[in-house]
């Protein structure tokens, strides 16, 4: 497995086991929302390229990131077709919105905070793939292992851009968003999504 110890060190908490149990109870939703997440990640990167046309490093980095996310989208949709899972609309998790509502509105704070949020989303995605991989079927487990390398690189890309465009240290803002992220991950959630919190009611998994 690709080493993601730096991801685990960066994140404020591990994915709760209750979420993994929840995911195993909803394999179709897991795949559908994963596809949506890949598509949204590509869309976010492209939107940022339109917004910050004067930032060459951002354009180069996010252009490659968007291509990779769209490739992952295609791969997940193909997996779904093989498993007779229908790709459909799905309400988004509270996760990304819960962090983005705290992004500053003036520059360069807006750009820096957006990059930090992007880093956290990519890091959490990577950590969740690693958490799921031992518990899903062999084909899906291999695919999640395959995703770890690119997702961890995307995390590093976003964090590097945040550091580059900040006009000073970013540790305080990173810690602020980590606290928001931890609350979203550990607090009860009423619907399962790839980035949801813990289930409101305990989920019992049959391990026989």
Description:
The chain is an all-alpha fold. The chain is built from eight helices and two strands; from the N terminus they run ααααααααββ. The chain has helices at 5-10, 17-25, 27-51, 56-82, 95-100, 109-132, 138-165, 171-186; strands spanning 188-189, 198-199. Strands 1-2 form a two-stranded parallel ribbon. Helix 3 packs antiparallel against helix 4. It is globular, with a radius of gyration of 17 Å. It starts with a helix and ends in a 9-residue tail after the last strand.
Summarize this, please?
This protein is mainly alpha-helical and 208 residues long. The protein is built from eight helices and two strands. Helix 3 (27-51) runs antiparallel to helix 4 (56-82), helix 6 (109-132) packs antiparallel against helix 7 (138-165) and helix 6 packs across helix 8.
What tags apply to this protein structure?
208 residues; mainly alpha; two-stranded parallel ribbon; 68% helix; disordered C terminus
**Termini Cα gap:** 27 Å
- What overall form do the CA principal axes indicate? globular
Strand content: under 5%
Helicity, in percent? Answer: 55-70%
Itemize the secondary structure elements and their pairings.
Blueprint: H1 5-10, H2 17-25, H3 27-51, H4 56-82, H5 95-100, H6 109-132, H7 138-165, H8 171-186, E1 188-189, E2 198-199
Helix pairs in contact: 3-4, 4-7, 6-7, 6-8
